[in-house]
Amino acid sequence: IPVLGSIPAGIPIEAIEDIIDYEEIPESWTRGGNEYFALKIKGESMMPEYRDKDTVIFKKQDTCDNNDDCAVMLNGNEATFKRVERLMEGVILKPLNPAFESKFYSNKEIEELPVRVIGVFWELRRGRAVK
Q1: Active-site residue, from 40, 53, 82, 103
Q2: Active-site residue flag, 82
Q3: What 3 state SS string does the chain have?
Q4: How far apart are CA 78 and CA 97, in angstroms?
Q5: Out of 40, 45, 103, 108, which one is annotated catalytic?
Q6: pTM of the prediction?
Q7: Beta partners for 82?
Q8: For residue 29, what pLDDT is reported?
Q9: pLDDT tens digits along 51-77
Q10: Residue of 112, 105, 48, 50 lying closest to 81 (CA atoms)
């Protein structure tokens, strides 16, 4: 699968889908029509679970369960990686790093901006540190 550039674990930035690498996945994952994509993490808002330069594989889907870690598109062209807390009145995009602030989006903002899930965390691939 392609690694489609980087996704900020911090402030959302414009989403750019440049293929920067490839990751191998088991053929069994694609049974049933499932699709996957990978992104490199950029930033520290999802630490300690996810680190800057980690590669995260996402299952391509537009919905998620409460408290899933997701690739989220904002305003149609900005992407971010956050934990999604679903509420009756909207969603909270939550960083795991307490040094960063959560952001609430009302149901109205979800529709108008829009705010949409594009993938749900599937697997973390962390390279070894070079010495």
Answers
A1: 82
A2: yes
A3: CEEEEEEECCCCEECCCCEEEECCCCHHHHHHHCCEEEEEEECCCCCCCCCCCCEEEEEECCCCCCCEEEEEEECCCEEEEEEEEEECCEEEEECCCCCCCCEEEEHHHHHHCCEEEEEEEEEEECCCCCC
A4: 20
A5: 45
A6: 0.87
A7: 70
A8: 93
A9: 999 999 999 999 999 999 999 999 888
A10: 50
